[in-house]
Amino acid sequence: MHEVMGQNGFHAVLNIARLPYLVDSYPPPDFEPGLRFDEVGRLMEAVEGIYGVRGGRRLIKQSGHYCFKYGIEGFGGVIGFADFALRLIPVSLRVRIGLEVLAEIFNRYSDQFITLGENEDWYFFMMKQCGLCWGRQTEGVACALAEGLLEETLYWITRGRRFAVEEFICLATGQAMCAIQVGKTPLN
User: Fold this and answer.
1) CATH 3.90.1520.10 is held by the domain 2-183
2) 112-118 long-range Cβ contacts below 8 angstroms, 24+ apart
3) For the chain, does the N or the C end have fewer beta carbons within 10 angstroms?
């Protein structure tokens, strides 16, 4: 979010989210949880409060892209090997593998519980416990960061292809889970 909003914008968000202790001390880039779910929910709500729901979700989604870019750097040499191996696999299988790996990372390193589903046209990334909208009540879906993270994951794993990625069910609207649909066919 710091990259997307700039230092002053992000510091304002942290203060409104009642997270001033993070202003000059971000959590370390490791697999340890740096924020509690209620803190993440307040952070997302503060962004939407400052920039409006539409503008805030756009910025949050862009932040999801950066989360992937910075997150993948932590995997170092493993990525080089995986990148080479992925070139040999059909795009449809790369998408499925990307979703499975991302779900496993969330399940292993956070308190979120991700399951995957699919039908003929879509994959479904379902979050039964979601830190992005934790403690929130909204009119519409509120997990734009997950959408951005999924978009960037698929862009990387398919070497530049874009896919339809859209949350259609959200805990913040009173539903039983958050669910994001991912098109099986590239848009480009």
Assistant:
1) yes
2) 118/184
3) C
The SS3 call for residue 175 is coil
Helix (H/G/I), strand (E/B), else coil: 133: coil
Tokens representing 158? 């398919």
| Residue pLDDT, tens place only, 96-146 | 988 998 899 889 888 889 999 999 999 999 999 999 999 999 999 999 999
CA distance 188 to 180: 20
- Answer yes or no: pTM beyond 0.85: yes
Q: Which residue has the higher pLDDT, 109 or 81?
A: 109
Domain ranges of the chain: 2-183
